[in-house]
Write a structure and sequence with these properties.
The protein is an alpha+beta fold. It has helices at residues 48-62, 273-285, 289-304, 358-361, 365-382, 385-399, 428-447, 457-473, 501-510, 518-529, 546-558, 562-575, 618-629; strands at residues 63-67, 79-85, 92-97, 106-112, 118-124, 150-159, 165-172, 185-193, 198-203, 214-221, 230-242, 270-272, 319-321, 345-347, 354-356, 363-364, 412-414, 421-422, 475-476, 481-482, 485-486, 493-494, 530-531, 534-535, 590-599, 605-612. The protein has 2 domains: 48-64 and 253-629, Alpha/alpha barrel (Glycosyltransferase); 75-242, Jelly Rolls, CATH 2.60.120.260. Helix content is 28%, strand content 21%. Strands 1, 3, 4, 6, 9 and 11 form a 6-stranded antiparallel β-sheet that branches. The chain has a 5-stranded antiparallel β-sheet with strand order 2-5-10-7-8, with no helix packed on it. The termini are far apart. The relative contact order is 0.15.
Length: 639
């Protein structure tokens, strides 16, 4: 038996356009009462958007995929082990075929046939040594998965048009003669595939799943496929199904998947930490504690298990892989970490290389501040001290970004692991986030007389005030708006673009601060950002940006403008999908006026404009839930 490996996770840092992300992040409150979608003030958990988010978490938890879509980070058993007996050509597997049962792709198999020979493939997690590339594991290393609790194994298959194909499918069975064999094996026997998609199941009630390294496999031969020298068949939606949610933490993909020929396909599996924090908040406010904790626990794991840096050095990255954030058993990062949090990326069809995103690998200050706010909310609801400790750990890291000369806090760390640099700019949004996060943290510490590393509640109140001073400096009373922040020199005010969200967040956090004119900011938002009763990201007004628009809805609730709140929430509810989700924008290509820079493989600089598309977005959906529930995550006065 010879072995061929299809490498899936080569740790190579190439630039991918950082669409829909940057030094900007988004926000709202945790102390105002819940209201229903009609805004009648009754204490109800009524949020279709939160229901959709909870259903997504549950769906992620009940299916462990072997294959969902091409390069989907929810795929497990991603390495391929070729099995051949006899002199027959190697089967070819195109894992990006557009002939899909569901989603965007399937696996297309072309298997040559020859008398007396057989061939097939195993799907396994394999192993990866420090600094090496992943390799299939035939049982020589202990790196299997415990799949107990799975009740059935499901896959979908069909033959090529005009053909039939007979194939034997199975799970387990790797390493019978090796040191670490799978604990069981079960197969379908040879089954006939026709040109129609069909669902197949392997019942697992009597199968020992305590250690499985061969998650799936198939073999075929000429004896079962007469009168042909090759068969072609397709595989899709291959997964283990659990009756109860799997206990592993969950990261939801930030955006719905789009076909591989559509702009933005490379972020199909990206789970941005800001979106995850907002999801935790939305689920918590809606009373979906179990689902909120699954996402929060993913952030906990990522915080303490970075593949290179410690918490005190960096905090949370901007983006991770959707699904279970924990690396596969037997995988070690280049810096020797195991387990480690999986980062978002994409296996490129043309180059056959693993690409990672410049932005996602970086560490943005505001995203970390939002994680503090999310951790504090689940701490309040569960009283589990690990969430409060995590909030303190991130706050201690953010303190290292304090600019003692120019005020505020630097934007974070940018770049790939081996070439990261501290950002020079100071973001108004980030400082708003820190103001609220540190203020809420101080209140939490006061409630239980808690200290962290010798720092008490007053320390964080002082730092919150320092962040507030920078925000107020960025307020322009004549225009009635907040500037974005500074340029990379940390001094020059950035007036290249005027984002909506810095103003909505400013109002959420400082609505009762005498240093700003609330009504003038509202007037500016209406005159410069309004589109079709809602709002754009910037003042070119070329489309509706739902995330920021929903923040404005929250602002109206915070300010007690019931009529405006109800009217705009009705517009948003009408624009939402029937399942409760909502898209990032009302059309493709809504511009932001912000250009992001990254590094190409050859070291050259590549710029890309950050745009929003009409694509389901968990960040926007989380804000819809928050608006439906009438909450303000940036509230500090009652925390």
């Amino acid at each position: 038996m010879k072995q061929i490996i299809d490498f899936r996770s080569i740790k190579k840092s190439l630039y991918i356009s950082a669409i829909a992300v940057a030094c900007f992040v988004i926000g709202c409150n945790s102390s105002s009462s819940n209201v229903n979608a009609d805004g009648d003030g009754e204490d109800k958990y009524n949020s279709p958007a939160a229901e959709w988010l909870a259903a997504q978490v549950d769906e992620y938890s009940r299916k462990l995929y072997v294959y969902r879509d091409y390069s989907d980070s929810r795929n497990n058993f991603t390495q391929r082990g070729l099995m051949i007996d006899g002199n027959v050509g190697e089967p070819q597997m195109d894992e990006a075929s557009p002939v899909a049962f569901s989603g965007i792709t399937s696996i297309k198999v072309k298997a040559p046939l020859r008398y007396g020979c057989w061939s097939g493939y195993y799907f396994g997690n394999g192993i990866m040594t420090s600094g090496g590339e992943p390799q299939f594991n035939w049982g020589d290393f202990r790196a299997g998965m415990d799949l107990r609790g799975a009740v059935k194994f499901v896959f979908h298959a069909r033959a090529e048009n005009g053909q039939t194909a007979r194939v034997n499918f199975f799970i387990g069975g790797v390493g019978d003669d090796k040191q670490y064999p799978d604990t069981d094996r079960k197969e379908t026997g040879y089954i006939t595939l026709t040109q129609e998609w069909k669902r197949f199941e392997i019942k697992l009630s009597n199968v020992n799943l305590s250690y499985i390294s061969g998650g799936f496999g198939w073999v075929t031969n000429l004896n079962n496929n007469s009168d042909t020298d090759e068969i072609t068949f397709y595989l899709d939606d291959i997964y283990y199904e659990f009756t109860k949610p799997h206990p592993a933490p969950v990261f939801l993909a930030s955006y719905e998947a789009v076909p591989l020929d559509r702009e933005g396909y490379f972020i199909n599996s990206a789970a941005y930490s800001y979106d995850l924090a907002m999801t935790v908040l939305a689920l918590s406010y809606a009373g979906k504690r179990e689902q909120a904790c699954k996402v929060a626990d993913g952030l906990l794991f990522a915080l303490y298990n970075d593949r290179k840096f410690s918490v005190s050095e960096r905090g949370l990255r901007n983006g991770y892989s959707a699904g279970n954030p924990e690396s596969f058993p037997g995988w070690v990062s280049a810096s020797g970490k195991s387990p480690f949090a999986k980062l978002t990326g994409f296996f490129d069809i043309d180059s056959k290389e693993w690409w990672e995103d410049y932005y996602s690998d970086s560490y943005s200050t505001g995203n970390n501040a939002w994680a503090i706010i999310a951790f504090l909310e689940v701490w309040r609801q569960t009283e589990k001290i690990e969430y409060l400790k995590a909030a303190c750990a991130i706050a201690d890291y953010l303190y290292t970004l304090k600019d003692e000369v120019n005020g505020g806090f630097k934007g974070g760390w940018e770049g790939f692991d081996d070439s990261q640099k501290k950002a020079g700019y100071i973001s108004t949004e980030h400082c708003i986030d820190i103001y609220s996060a540190f203020s809420q943290l101080a209140s939490a510490m006061e409630k239980i007389s808690y200290t962290s590393g010798g720092r008490n509640a007053q320390f964080y109140r002082n730092e919150a005030a320092y962040a507030r001073d920078f925000v107020i400096r960025m307020y322009d009373p004549e225009q009635g708006l907040f500037y974005t922040g500074t340029k990379p020199d940390g001094i020059t005010v950035n007036d290249d673009v005027y984002p909506l969200d810095v103003n909505t967040w400013g109002l959420m956090a400082f609505y009762n601060d005498p240093a700003i004119d609330v009504q003038k900011i509202l007037n500016t938002i209406e005159s410069r950002f309004s589109v079709d009763g809602m709002y754009d990201f910037n003042d070119d007004r070329d489309g509706v940006w739902w995330e920021g628009s929903l923040q404005k809805v929250v602002v109206e609730k915070v300010l007690g403008n019931a009529a405006k709140y109800n009217a705009q929430l009705s517009i948003a509810n009408a624009a939402a999908n029937a399942d409760g989700s909502i898209t990032a924008a009302n059309r493709d290509g809504v511009s932001t006026g912000i250009w992001l820079e990254g590094v190409n493989a050859d070291g050259s600089i590549k710029g890309n404009e950050w745009k929003y598309n009409k694509r389901i977005h968990i960040g926007a959906t989380a804000w819809l839930a928050i608006a439906q529930l009438g909450r303000n995550p940036l509230e500090v006065s009652e925390n």
